[in-house]
Amino acid sequence: MTPSQFREEGKKMVDWIADYYENIESHPVLSQVKPGEIYNNLPDAAPVKGESVDQMLGDVYKDIFPGLTHWQSPNFFAFFPANGSFPGILGDMLSSGLGVQGMIWATSPACTEVESKVMDWLVDMMQLPQVFKTTSEGGGVIQDSASSSVLTAVIAAREKATGYTSNEEGTHNKLVAYVSTQTHSSVEKAVKIAGIGLNNLRKIECDGNLGMNAKVLQQQIRDDKKKGYIPFFVCATMGSTSSNAMDPLRDIGEICHTENCWLHVDAAMAGTAMLCPEFRYLLDGVDLAHSYCFNPHKWMFTNLDCSCFYVSDKRHLINTFSILPEYLKNKATESGAVIDYRDWHIQLGRRFRALKLWFVIRHYGVEGLQHHIRGHVRLAQEFTQWVSQSDDFELVVQPPLNLVCFRHKAGDDFNMKLMEAANATGKAYFTHTKIKGQVALRVVIGQTNTEEKHVKAVWELIQDTAKALKGQHQ
Amino acid sequence: MTPSQFREEGKKMVDWIADYYENIESHPVLSQVKPGEIYNNLPDAAPVKGESVDQMLGDVYKDIFPGLTHWQSPNFFAFFPANGSFPGILGDMLSSGLGVQGMIWATSPACTEVESKVMDWLVDMMQLPQVFKTTSEGGGVIQDSASSSVLTAVIAAREKATGYTSNEEGTHNKLVAYVSTQTHSSVEKAVKIAGIGLNNLRKIECDGNLGMNAKVLQQQIRDDKKKGYIPFFVCATMGSTSSNAMDPLRDIGEICHTENCWLHVDAAMAGTAMLCPEFRYLLDGVDLAHSYCFNPHKWMFTNLDCSCFYVSDKRHLINTFSILPEYLKNKATESGAVIDYRDWHIQLGRRFRALKLWFVIRHYGVEGLQHHIRGHVRLAQEFTQWVSQSDDFELVVQPPLNLVCFRHKAGDDFNMKLMEAANATGKAYFTHTKIKGQVALRVVIGQTNTEEKHVKAVWELIQDTAKALKGQHQ
Question: How many helices (H) and strands (E) would you count in chain B?
């Protein structure tokens, strides 16, 4: 394909994407295909001769479209969102177009330095600790996911705790990590991957608001030390996946400080709210964190994949992950004057992901971002009021930001049926969790194009579906 | 930004990218900025108010462009390539536009099933073992990088070797992994991350052709077993990063089979050559592999990031990586009829990466892909002849495919100076390695738009630079 053919085909693709967003509400949000349906409709063998872009785009509609769950629909309220935006797509296009591989500074200095700059901007935009800045002892790096971010933290913490000997000698089974019962499953996965072992992961019980009970944490650490274990890592959550619960960062941070544990703060979705000063009370204690992570690809209008991972001391990463084979040696690295981000994460090769973040921040501006985040929180609080005023439904916990957990009073089975029936209409998509042993429905308001009318519509859908189901039962 | 504004801005971006490729040869291939130059030129704070796309694109030229090393230039011969293509960009645009997150089948069935289908196509396109197909005991998954692929393999192998107890109990320091002195550094990194410890990594010596000496491997495994170690993992390389050296897969595979070790085959760049039947003799023994990886983002015209990772028994992945919190439970997963790729790798969230692979394969067709790969290999063999016929230069090893290692006869220092001087002209970019203790220059021919004239030009540049340096020295 020549550049001039790409001009033509690329513009068709832009129109295709614009059309998609103009019509996105006409498709069922949750895909309704059966297992295997998409796979079986595609040809069994790759074409021998090349095919046209028109043919391919036609097949996208025919063969792929029915199998899409539309994450960019304003009627998507499930999980945590992945709220892309047009400026994010533009930045991603530029990254694909330039096609640079920024494994080390020398292989594209801009890929490293724009990332450093944008990560530093975010520190100020959110009043995160200044030590997280590139120009300080710490720094920030874009990872693909919060899972990779927390794994990076666990590994670095493991090495710090063992004087960088596990890298050499392998781990031993005395290291112990701590989460709450509400912490994201990615920490369990990281503890497995890192060779710590799930038997050495303690799930600390929570208070009524589903935040970690710091006193129980303190006691557990003391008990473990008495038994000869080495507590090394605590994950505190700002906004749990299940219910957006907040762990008491300062209390946990002080325990970590005293007990010499690495504190990782997982703020995967809620972290974006730190753009707004009125939510920054949640950051209290984050100055005690060794690492901190939030995902602009969840709530900050930046297309997958973009997870911002900060550390307060970059040496822990470099000491842990650095490897320098001959073919990557170069003067800039040897000078020590540059960052080689490959030493800050698992992967070697890396895309120029900072461009999409740069585009998003510049397009919206700080005030624009604040405006949209506040809008989502306001809509979630309205939804909360409707639930509170309803006779049939009840709130499960008080939502601090944009995630509402509630349920119909008719019990677990009814709530699951209600959710499945509502999602099967294709009009909206929301998911469930279990809180204190009971099913709760989750509505997350964070999709880029979600407006009040969409939130009203999903609430009506939930009420109407409940009434229809009740009618069937009676 | 509305869809109609995106139509306008997106088309500008398409034109920007097309312009970039039309003029790419007018820029120095290797960026010539100093450390900090790009960072310091960017504003210290994010804008408060939003800015226009025109402004942003203008700043890309002004602030970012000087810091780019142009991986998509036909004069890029460094490292392994990252050879994108316009169809790849189109597929990536579509992925950004759809913005789906395919962590589990239910969150976008097409994201999973197109991936399964394309990965199965490639098994047939390259005559890989049928057991790697989704419809068999094995299967394939797209990872972001070969580093992540090999880490996944190491972890799964660790669990297999310990009866899935390390996940629970942590690792112990009796497990031993094996690589050659030429194996990619990502295996060292993975062994560190997995808690195996570098002391438990054996670097087996190589034969004259820089392939692993299987007899030494066999002896080392026996010695380790005698000492009470548990050999669990061997990485065999098809096309080493340093010199494209080939390990004897079948010999190593048979040892792994007898000794009950996991065999991972790293074919990161060279794997793409398996599209052509005449190179498939290199696959001999791959039927003994537990896992196999090649990166279409290196040599198969598929934009970063796209690493194809196959296993012969998917249960090892699922047993190792599966975690199912309440909020991800769903009927499709419970039915067992679908693949949830989050259980096949480290990350939870995942982009729809299969689209770019689907676009590339369909655009080129199998014959088109073969044509381009054969062209690159032919050009590398021509370059090899020129070196052989030169009085001043010598081949370091016989290149099997598209990577030529050679050197000027004037010694290590001279070769390093020659490389730096040639790269500083901006006319081309190539890198170095060390082979048998001596510096070798590496020219890799794999960039999408590299033609004979570019290869001739880099050879002339190298000869002219050598002459000029000799002149200075005399």
Answer: 16, 11
- DSSP E strands: which ranges in A227-321? 230-237, 262-266, 291-294, 307-311
**What fold characterizes domain B3-70?**
dopa decarboxylase, N-terminal domain (1.20.1340)
Interface test with A, best of B6, B115, B274 (most A CBs within 10 A): B6
What distance in Å separates the CA atoms of residue B3 and residue B12, rounded to the nearest whole number? 14
Rg of chain A (C-alpha set): 24
Residues in B closer than 8 angstroms to A113, CB to CB, are 36-39, 42, 67
What is the ipTM metric for this complex?
0.90
Selected for mutation to probe chain B from A31, A90, A160, A320 (highest B CB count within 10 Å) is A90
**Contact between chains at B113 and A17 (C-beta distance less than 8 A):** no
Strands (DSSP E) found in B379-430: 393-395, 403-408
**Residue pLDDT tens, chain B, 474 long:** 999 999 999 999 999 999 999 999 999 999 999 999 999 999 999 999 999 999 999 999 999 999 999 999 999 999 888 899 999 999 999 999 999 988 888 888 998 898 899 899 888 988 888 988 988 888 888 888 777 887 887 777 777 777 777 666 667 678 899 999 999 988 988 888 888 888 889 999 999 999 999 999 999 999 999 999 999 999 999 999 999 999 999 999 999 999 999 999 999 999 999 999 999 999 999 999 999 989 999 999 999 888 899 999 888 888 888 877 887 788 888 888 888 888 888 888 889 988 999 999 999 999 999 999 999 999 999 999 999 999 999 999 999 999 999 999 999 999 999 999 999 999 999 999 999 999 999 999 999 999 999 999 999 999 999 999 998 755
CA distance B416 to chain A (A): 10
Q: Distance between alpha carbon A112 and the CA centroid of its chain, in Å?
A: 22
Enter the CATH code of domain A365-473: 3.90.1150.10
What is the fold, at CATH topology level, of the domain defined by A3-69?
Answer: dopa decarboxylase, N-terminal domain (1.20.1340)
Cα torsion B350, B351, B353, B356 to 10°: value is 180
Nearest to A109 among B33, B79, B304 (CB): B33
Cross-chain residue pair B6–A16, CB shorter than 8 Å: no
Q: Do B170 and A166 touch (CB under 8 A)?
A: no
- Residue A252 distance to chain B (closest CA, Å): 24
- Segments of chain A assigned to CATH 3.90.1150.10: 365-473
Contacts with B158 (C-beta within 8 Å, 6 or more apart), sequence order: A195, B166, B171, B175, B194, B196, B232, B233
Strands A403-408 and A431-435: unpaired
Distance CA A278, CA B398 (A): 66
Please tell me which of the candidates A195, A304, A338 has its beta carbon nearest to residue B101. A304
Residue of B243, B348, B423, B436 best to disrupt the A interface, most CBs of A under 10 A: B348
Residue range(s) of every CATH 1.20.1340.10 domain in chain B:
3-70
Judging contacts by C-beta atoms under 8 Å, the chain A residues touching residue B93 are: 10, 13-14, 17, 89, 92-93, 96
The one-letter amino acid code at B178 reads Y
Rounded to whole angstroms, how far apart are CA atoms A276 and A186?
27
Report the predicted TM-score, pTM, of the whole model to 2 decimal places.
Answer: 0.91
β-sheet bridge partners, residue A432: A441
Indicate the CATH number of B100-351 among 3.40.630.30, 1.10.260.40, 3.40.640.10, 3.40.190.10: 3.40.640.10
Rg of chain B in Å (alpha carbons): 24
Q: Write out the residue limits of the CATH 3.40.640.10 domain(s) in chain B.
A: 100-351
Candidate from A71, A108, A241 with C-beta closest to B67: A108
Query: B314-321 and B146-161 are packed helices; what angle lies between their axes, rounded to 10 degrees?
Result: 90
